[in-house]
Specification:
Number of strands: 6
GO molecular function: phosphoglycerate mutase activity
Shape: globular
Strand order of the largest sheet: 3-2-4-1-5-6
Keywords: Gluconeogenesis, Glycolysis, Isomerase
Structural class: alpha/beta
Catalytic activity: (2R)-2-phosphoglycerate = (2R)-3-phosphoglycerate
CATH topology: Rossmann fold
Number of helices: 8
InterPro entries: His_Pase_superF_clade-1, His_PPase_superfam, PG/BPGM_mutase_AS, Phosphogly_mut1
Protein name: 2,3-bisphosphoglycerate-dependent phosphoglycerate mutase
Radius of gyration: 17 Å
CATH superfamily: Phosphoglycerate mutase-like
């Protein structure tokens, strides 16, 4: 039986991460730093001796490009890549494109903090973390997990909040716990799963 390997990779720094803007579903590219982070992720995974059979990513180019750059560093460009908006970042609605400091001036520090850090309160026109989980988790359970359990070594390149949904389940975190769990840009998290889909081991490749 081959190993049940799942790697989660948050995209490298994006142009709007750098500018301190709410990004959500806006389709922005990586910065030079983000490109470096993506390539470094690939080098770290290669150094671990990891290879993949299949990859999943979102419908947004910052995640797609991160995946492409990492796989190129690994010499793994020929594997199947499945793109789906179920893995997209949380939709920030009316906050999308706004500077976070400007948003605080408009709605107040406390309200913006609630939108960013509460589990189930959505910004106007957008999604809460719970809403993001509601689309990401079924996709993971139905489309991705069965492949992992069959021994297909899998990488998911996505976003801070869509990956939080998966981390919440894999690491059995509470709604409060997942809000405190930081997922760094461009840092692979390696999970090896048991046959019952629980986690056997976790390795975070933070520098």
């Amino acid at each position: 039986m081959s190993e049940r390997l799942l790697v989660l990779l948050r995209h490298g720094q994006s142009e709007w991460n750098l500018k301190n803007l709410f990004t959500g579903w806006r389709d922005v590219d990586l910065t030079e730093q983000g490109v470096k982070e993506a390539k470094e992720a690939g080098r770290k995974l290669k150094a671990e001796g990891i290879t993949f059979d299949i990859a999943y990513t979102s419908a947004l180019k910052r995640a797609q490009r991160t995946l492409d750059l990492a796989l190129a560093e690994m010499g793994q460009t020929g594997i199947p890549i499945i793109r789906d908006q179920a893995l997209n970042e949380r939709d920030y609605g009316d906050l999308s494109g706004l500077n976070k400091d400007d948003a605080r001036k408009k709605w107040g520090e406390e309200q913006v903090h609630i939108w960013r850090r509460s589990y189930d309160i959505a910004p106007p026109g957008g999604e809460s973390l719970r809403d993001t989980l509601a689309r990401t988790l079924p996709y993971y359970v139905q489309e991705i997990l069965p492949n992992v359990l069959r021994g297909q070594r899998t990488v998911i390149a996505a976003h801070g909040n869509s990956l939080r949904a998966l981390v919440m389940v894999l690491e059995k975190l509470s709604p409060e716990g997942i809000l405190k769990r930081e997922i760094a840009t461009g840092v692979p998290i390696i999970y090896r799963l048991n046959a019952d889909a629980t986690v056997e081991s976790i390795k975070d490749l933070a520098a």
